Amino acid sequence: MIRSMRWKGAAFTVPFQLGFVFLYLLPIGYAVYESLFTEKQSGLGLGGATTEFVGLDNYTQGLTDSAFMNSILRVVLFACVQIPMMLLISLLLALFLDALTSRVASRFRIVLLVPYMIPGVVAAIVWVNLYSPDVGPLTAIGTSLGLDWNFFAPSMVWPAIGNLLTWHGIGYNMVIIYSALQGVPRELFEAARLDGASELRIARSIKIPFVRGALVLTGLLSIIQMLQIFNEPALFRNITPQTVSDSFTPIMIIYNQAFNAGNYNYAAALSVLLALILGVASFLFYRLTSKEAD
Amino acid sequence: MTLTEQTTERPEVRSVRRLTRPDPASRGRGGQRFLLVGLVLASAYSLFPVWWLIVAATKDRTALYQSNGLWFSGWHLWDNLHQVFTYQDGIFLRWTANSFLYAGVGSLGGTLIALATGYGLARFDFPGRNAIFACVVGSFLIPIALLTLPLYLLFSAIGMVDTPWAMLIPCLINPFSVYLAKVYTEATIPYELLEAARIDGAGELRIFFSIVLRMMTTGGATVFLLAFVNTWNAFFLPLTVLRGKENWTLNLGLYNWTGTRLESGIDLTGLVLTGALLSIVPMAIMMVAMRRYWRTGVTLGALK
């Protein structure tokens, strides 16, 4: 390629590069820089605050901050339950759709995608009200079944949020798995059927291994989302502050440190820590799932 | 890029399967019925919250608390709409306009930048190209908090917090859009075409605006649609950079209304639900109108 044309090609990417520097690299650099300092009140707090370089103090504080570590643990444990469950349902529905004639399948596919079209905040508003003992029908349904459930009780918060996330995410994950399923060469099924394999066996031995990549991807995306969960618990907190504390998830803690406690330096250190944890978690998950494939 | 559309139909495969299937009983009526029951149950689960929301928006306060949640009781939809649009001097309308402004203008600008970048990355070979692409993919892993908090500080240093710019500017740079645009360029713009245009003496800018952009209408529409939905649904960024009610988005406004009850004892549940229903309407219209694009976009973006 001619040298001058190369640079013309590079010019097309300049607006993005500038924006990326200003909106991504600069903020990250700034966060890392801020995380190395702390604001100290001099004297009795009358002399105003001074900023002091403290090195990695904010990080050691973050790593020993039980509220922060507990919030991460809480989210990770929750992810271990909710994500496999959601993916399993999505996989089942995708397999169901794949076994139907395509005409019927496309109808169901649209219906199952309806929740995904709804903004996360609105989805949370709807479910919080469905759970509400005053407005929602679920409490009454529970009573008629002899179940005395209260979705706002501390023990029910995670199942309640888990159901909301599952409801919101099934459609999207199903579509991704379903389109991967469409790529399975149909001759494989014929061959298997001639060999006397049942439909269940075909699903287990051909279809599911084939969509492994799609499952890994949806799992990875779900993990990234889960570690950053904020909207849903924030909305629950708006309604029942006594069950959802303001340090429920890592991002809630970071937000509170920055905007309620005014402790930007510490908030910056915590967000860098979260980014590192996210990177490590994604890497581990990817390694683990692709290793098994070999 | 119409990958899913094509494979979804596959009429020839189906007829072949029907002819050669050795044992039709293995997946006979019973099997199909089982699948249908499962899917109907899943559909009911997906739809009943939306149904409940629609029903709730038609009720007055007493019926909302006392009648069966899944069926109508009185018709007060117009009253509710009137209340939503007039409460606090019609601030809801303002939030709607803001959401449209941020999602519309932000996504349009973001799509144009993404298409140019994707084209540059896919069809030119220049030093640093791989580094840019690595940045694009790597940025998928950066948590929103890590970007949003320092961005807030930067914006407040230059006096942009609490202005529409604080929402619009971040929307202009969307790595996922760039990623999609690159994939679409690779699928739709052949090198030969570019060569031919160059031999005819067209300049690079002219080629981009009059040939590439025109051929990328479908891909561009998908990128725009996904960016629009993303911005419309955004919550953490507006919550962080917008302080005054005037510049809020619909999501932020509704979130604030849900919390009002605790602070002041005023019950806005009816307003929140009617407002929530309204905020879905533009999404639903767009999704239906552009169904073909977004379905392929969702799957292609995830699989490639």
Automatic annotation (TrEMBL), chain A:
Matches recorded under Gene3D superfamilies: MetI-like
Q: Which UniProt keywords apply?
A: Cell membrane, Membrane, Transmembrane, Transmembrane helix, Transport
Give TM regions: 12-33, 72-96, 108-128, 156-181, 210-230, 266-286
- The domain of life is Bacteria
Q: State the compartments where it is located.
A: Cell membrane
Q: Determine if GTP-binding is one of this entry's keywords.
A: no
Query: Where does the ABC transmembrane type-1 domain lie?
Result: 72-285
Annotated membrane topology is: Multi-pass membrane protein
Q: What is this protein called?
A: Sugar ABC transporter permease
Give the originating organism.
Answer: Streptomyces violaceochromogenes
UniProtKB/TrEMBL annotation, chain B:
Residue span of region Disordered: 1-28
Where located? Cell membrane
Q: Name one Pfam family in it.
A: BPD_transp_1
Q: Name the GO cellular-component terms.
A: plasma membrane
> Which terms under GO biological process does the entry name?
transmembrane transport
Protein name per UniProt: Multiple sugar transport system permease protein
Q: Its family?
A: Belongs to the binding-protein-dependent transport system permease family.
The lineage is:
Bacteria, Bacillati, Actinomycetota, Actinomycetes, Kitasatosporales
Superkingdom of the source species:
Bacteria
Transmembrane intervals? 34-54, 100-119, 131-153, 165-184, 205-229, 268-289
Q: Which species does this protein come from?
A: Streptomyces collinus
Q: Where is the composition biased (Basic and acidic residues)?
A: 7-26
**Keywords carried by this UniProt record:** Cell membrane, Membrane, Sugar transport, Transmembrane, Transmembrane helix, Transport
Q: List the InterPro entries hit by this protein, alphabetically.
A: MetI-like, MetI-like_sf
The annotated topology with respect to the bilayer is: Multi-pass membrane protein
Where is the ABC transmembrane type-1 domain positioned along the sequence? 96-290
